[in-house]
Design goal:
With 370 residues, the chain is an alpha+beta fold. It folds into 3 domains: 8-116, Orthogonal Bundle (Butyryl-Coa Dehydrogenase, subunit A, domain 1), CATH 1.10.540.10; 120-225, Butyryl-CoA Dehydrogenase, subunit A, domain 2, CATH 2.40.110; 229-369. It contains 11 helices and 7 strands. It has helices at residues 8-29, 34-42, 61-75, 78-98, 101-113, 228-267, 274-303, 305-308, 312-335, 344-350, 352-369, and strands spanning 118-121, 137-140, 144-155, 162-171, 177-185, 191-196, 206-217. The chain has a 4-stranded antiparallel β-sheet with strand order 2-3-7-6, covered by helices on one side. A 3-stranded mixed β-sheet has the order 1-4-5. Helix 6 runs antiparallel to helix 7 (274-303), helix 6 (228-267) packs parallel to helix 9 (312-335) and helix 9 crosses helix 11 (352-369). The protein is globular. It starts with 7 loop residues before the first helix and ends with a helix.
């Protein structure tokens, strides 16, 4: 395999061309596009920051951050951007950073090329992604482990080829679970995936996953037994959440320009005044601040996870700010009776992810500060 460099121009061309050009049709049908995914692999997007020796396209976290922002801004497809982020941050990089040489050689070329889709299964009913609530178990036997349990809200779960799964492998002290991360190929007996309807992010279907006695070899463990949360999921979600903070400014930039253009066409100019003018300038200028801060978060998550942990307060602030920004833009468009036809209808619908994220981070903020 000849490594491909993910050039900014090729990523922008794909986003503005095929991704945006097919967005309305794909959104109406509701589903994941393998054809576009393979194109993303062909131009090196799915292997960014991964060594070329394993089929990756190399590059820095800063370059990946900029690519995510621009891909979302031009493609207007937050669902596909989330699929890319989930695939790379949760699955590919977990193998790249913690995998054995054999795991890297087997899986990374398939994942970075676009032939396979990677995802992660952590959240469970009633507890979300909190480690104390993990009920999925992996019982150790002579030949490996038997995986049983249920996961929900798995991004790309209905069609992923490989999952990073967090499961309990026993106890490690009083009331503390030992959690281990496993690589699970989805074509194995006992694996079942069902689509969950969210009402938004329709180009990245989410799934409910059932593991009905799935048999795994000892070589399915990533890192070491018991390091599933302390090393794998903590670092993986740092990468994922930081990249989401990079995608959102791209979406905000797209919706801001779209609303402004439609306002000008309707009222023959963008003539605001007073507090309304102040609010518009404040909120639109915030996008540049969000973009710059997200770059620092991404670099920290990819290069120095332990240091990144001190940035959780910043992540909470950004999440709450994003939610307020999304609410403000939705209210402004509604108050001015802005035409909500394509692509604004899709962009505003997918901004629900920002509102959901804001609610989750508000709960985290209460735990941390109150």
């Amino acid at each position: 395999m000849i490594p491909v460099t993910a050039s900014p121009d090729r990523i922008k061309d794909l986003a503005a061309g095929e991704v945006f050009g097919t967005l309305e049709e794909r959104y109406q049908k509701g589903g994941f596009s393998r054809a576009i995914w393979e194109r993303m692999g062909e131009i090196g997007m799915l292997g960014m920051t991964v060594p070329e020796s394993y089929g990756g396209s190399g590059g820095t976290p800063a370059e990946l951050c900029d690519a995510v922002t621009e891909f979302t801004r031009l493609g207007r497809d937050l669902g596909l951007s989330l699929s890319w982020i989930t695939h790379l941050a949760l699955c590919v990089k977990s193998i790249d950073v913690f995998g054995t040489p054999e795991q890297k050689e087997r899986y990374l070329p398939l994942l970075t090329s676009g032939r396979w889709v990677g995802a992660a299964a952590v959240s469970e009913p009633g507890s979300g992604a909190h480690p104390a609530g993990i009920e999925t178990t992996a019982e150790k036997g002579d030949s490996g482990y038997t995986l049983s349990g249920k996961k929900i809200f798995v991004t790309d779960g209905p069609f992923a080829d490989l999952l990073v799964v967090l499961a309990s492998t026993g106890g490690a002290g009083e009331d503390k679970k030992e959690l281990t991360a496993f690589l699970v190929e989805t074509d194995v007996p006992g694996f079942e995936a069902r689509t969950m309807e969210l009402g938004f992010l329709k180009t990245a279907p989410h799934g409910e996953i059932h593991f009905n006695g799935v048999e795994l070899g000892h070589d399915a463990v990533i890192a070491k037994r018991g390091e599933g949360h302390s090393r794998i999921s903590k670092s993986a979600f740092a990468r994922e959440r930081s990249l989401v903070t990079a995608a959102v400014p791209g979406l905000f930039d797209a919706v801001g320009k779209e609303v402004a253009d439609r306002y000008r066409r309707k009222f023959e100019g963008l003539d605001l005044s007073g507090t309304e003018e102040d609010s518009w300038i404040h909120h639109l200028s915030a996008i540049e601040v969000y973009r710059r801060v997200s770059g620092d978060l991404v670099e920290g998550a990819f290069l120095d996870y332990e240091h990144w942990r001190s940035s959780v307060g910043l992540l909470i602030y950004l999440g709450l700010s994003y939610a307020k920004w999304a609410s403000w833009m939705d209210e402004f468009a509604s108050a001015k009776n802005i035409d909500l036809s394509f692509p604004l209808d899709i962009i505003l619908n997918d901004m629900k992810l920002v509102l959901v994220g804001g609610e989750l981070l508000l709960k985290e903020g209460k735990k941390r500060y109150m």
